Amino acid sequence: ILLVDATQGVQAQTFTTLDMARQQGLVIIPALSKVDSPLARTDETKLEVAELLDCDIDEIMEVSGKTGQGVEELLKQVIERVPAPKPILAGGDDSFRGLVFDFEYSEHRGVIVYTRVLDGSLKKGDQLMFTAANKKFQAIEIGTFSPAQKPADSLSVGEIGYIVTGIKQAGIANVGDTVTFAKHPLPQMDGYREPSPVVWASVYPESQDDFDQLRLALQRLKLSDSSLTFEEETSGTLGRGFRCGFLGMLHLEIITERLHREFDLELIVTSPSVTYKVLKKNGKEVWVYSPPLFPDHGDVETVFEPWVTMKIILPHHYVNDMIPLLYEHEGEILDTLQFGDGRTQIVLEMPLREMMRNFFDSMKSVTSGYASVSYEMGELRPADVVRMDILVAGEIVPAFAKVIGRRRIEEEADKSVEKLYNNLSRQMFVVKIQAVSLGRIIASKTLKALRKDVTGHLYGGDITRKMKLREKQKKGKKRMASQGKVHISQDVFLKMMKK
């Protein structure tokens, strides 16, 4: 069912989803939702959909989830037009194959996978296995959704249901994997791919006493989110932590927020980064996933970074405001297409690191929220990037390191130093905040020390008494500055990560 919002019209995601459906050879039933809304542009949107699908306007259905209008007619169309499911291999009743499309984790029953049965049938107690993970288990309970979980005796071709596996290990169940009989396995469904992280960040506990609790928390989250990857790493400044891979910035924010709320962990999260392929001058090739590990600019011969292909649909009167934003984020426009309803589609390519640099927020701001976007991962291309380090009181803070475009180095240095200056609490001694890159200091600010009035208790007398006390305080501050260390709280790390 191609459901298009009557108040928004065809958006960038509509094209992406429609292309996938056409590649699968699916029957497509067009329908408009929210037709009861006073903001609905029903007639205009129908013309857009008719042009998109090359179909008759009368074939496009009008439905409302709020009032129920047209829902029954839409379901009848599904029954009439969508063919009944058939076995793919037709192996008979002694075979079974199902596709895992989601799963959840239960404290008592382990992993519960949601599956669509493609071949054969399944009964409670059958011995099954995940083909990709090569893990065997027993179907403790099976059932359907109506809409709550309802136990059933069997599941057969075309049905969608759940299987209680009893597995309490992380990384076994994966969306897209195939479930089949352990004794007579059927081939794995084509198209399965391991989730591939595109954004990396290192997560450290604020107190090293919480390291084991952080590991346990990540393992618990991994049980219900197979796309999360993590491995242990050690930093000389931050101690022991984990390098985590995420599917995007939203995924990163969700995971860190869950770690804080559900497990009561105070965390230090490094600036998110993408994976770079670096060819060094000594001929070695390294893959860099974390900014602190990025080689110094004098050791780098060539750097390659991932790009994305992006489609943006927006009202045409916002195009002039959008072009400077695309230039700022190093976007390269490939094509533009005018729609008859006053909207424009822009097809472009952009470095993934620039898309992560608050591009979506800036785009929504420039277009007043009317732009929609979809993107696909592209190839690796040469990049002109360098590493920028932040020094606090003369010490490098690895969590603040960034890999950024050379042309933006001064702008980014000024912003980072100013932001840290505004968020870092004053210390008992003078603290210098510096941004260093390309072998030199790019930006610097000095955070003044907290001062106590050491002469407040004096009254009258010679001025030299006050001068002696102030000189003694000055020497103490100088000694503190040479020996003292700055404690940076979790709030500061989070504020530096966010816009």
Radius of gyration: 29 Å
Please mark out the parts with pLDDT under 50 across 5 or more consecutive residues, or reply none.
none
Helix content: 25-40%
- What is the subunit arrangement here? single chain
Largest sheet: 9 strands, antiparallel
Terminal CA distance reads 38 Å
> In what range is the share of β-strand residues?
25-35%
Q: Provide the structure class.
A: alpha+beta
Q: Shape from CA axes?
A: globular
Provide mean pLDDT, rounded.
84
Give me the count of strands. Answer: 27
Secondary structure tally, helices: 11
Keywords, please?
nine-stranded antiparallel sheet; six-stranded antiparallel sheet; single chain; 11 helices; 499 residues; alpha+beta
Could you characterize the architecture of this molecule?
The protein has 499 residues and is an alpha+beta fold. Strands 4, 5, 6, 7, 8, 9, 10, 11 and 12 form a 9-stranded antiparallel β-sheet that branches. Strands 17, 18, 19, 20, 21 and 22 form a 6-stranded antiparallel β-sheet that branches. Strands 23, 24, 25, 26 and 27 form a 5-stranded antiparallel β-sheet that branches. The protein is 26% helix and 34% strand.
